[in-house]
């Protein structure tokens, strides 16, 4: 299969020099896709030999007429199963919101969670997000927290509850890293190890072009086990997986949260395979140690604002050498899976905090929501930029529909002025997956019908106050 994209305002995220914020822009560019991979890119008119080759192969020429063509967005921190739970806990901070939302999923079946996750994955694709680090709803059901503490006595679900979430990402056609909870307080230690191993095996049996990797959903922040970090690190080494932990997120019980950083540090977790999600309630010493150890950070600006969690010190972390990526978190607390909104909220929050517009420029925000996110997920060799040999995952974004006016600085306009209304088409592996917000996936209609019927019925059954 060949596809030749022409007449594009091409943003490749492949820098031409040493500037880390160079996003590789061409005012009039072209891109050749072969067998789902980027085969070549260039400026101006594609060579006659390229056109002839596409024609001989019976390929397609896509003239985008001056629209932007850019890498599909990468979300380095996502909870796709929450797509049908938007609007809950609006007056709450993190734990009250969790009670409202996860108190609902605690009653879901594997079938319910499959359709909710599928709906969320298709929603990401319809907003131009082609790769996601996906935190699955754990096997151990949610239990209310008090000041960031939990007892670890919640009931345990069947393994299928996890595997159907991975199946849904695959069936949606979304590239994903599958993040699995260790559920380390239910059953014996051998039970915990065996459950995790079975989940890893299920995901690794999938097409590796979609299931890009497996990771641990780090839960030291909430675990009552003092050896929780050691359990996770042992699993990281045994299975060769990464770990991303929700950490230092909420403004409650800050000293308790900060004290748990030493558990990860002393267990030997710090390194490129360790990522801290949110990482807001930090200290200079914690940032310094995390950066020195090589750990990354996933930044969720929209959800951090929505939940009144605070503003992470992202420019300072980057200055200290910490790798950072942006995530959309979940539809239930970001509300709209809009990567442009997410970038703009992040830019505004950092500038308001530092009173310095240079603290977060549009080019940097774009990089963090594409290649930067892919890097901290460990998948930058396959996604995150339109580099030769990578998956041809891209968006076509038309600045004239609706018309935003002259593009005084096209890349900055792309970040600051575009919205999902400008998003014309989304391609994964050079194949159209969404056009004008309408999915081509044959399961999309059923996914919508199922969550609109099933989730309100579930809420009524359990007496959810909404």
Task: Describe the protein.
Helix 3 packs parallel to helix 4 and helix 14 packs across helix 16. The chain has 17 helices and 17 strands. The longest helix is centred in the last third of the chain and has 19 residues. The mean pLDDT is 95. It starts with a strand and ends with a helix. Helices cover 37% and strands 21% of the residues. By secondary structure, it is α/β, with parallel strands linked by helices.
Please give the structural blueprint.
Blueprint: E1 2-11, E2 25-34, E3 37-43, H1 48-56, E4 60-63, E5 68-71, E6 73-78, H2 94-105, H3 110-126, E7 129-135, H4 160-172, E8 175-181, H5 189-204, E9 211-218, H6 228-239, E10 242-247, H7 254-259, H8 261-266, E11 274-278, H9 284-293, E12 296-299, H10 301-306, H11 314-319, E13 324-326, H12 331-334, H13 339-354, H14 362-368, H15 371-377, E14 394-397, H16 410-417, E15 423-428, E16 431-435, E17 438-439, H17 444-462
Parallel strand pairs: 1-4, 1-5, 6-7, 7-8, 8-9, 9-10, 10-11, 11-12, 12-13
Antiparallel strand pairs: 1-2, 2-3, 5-14, 14-15, 15-16, 16-17
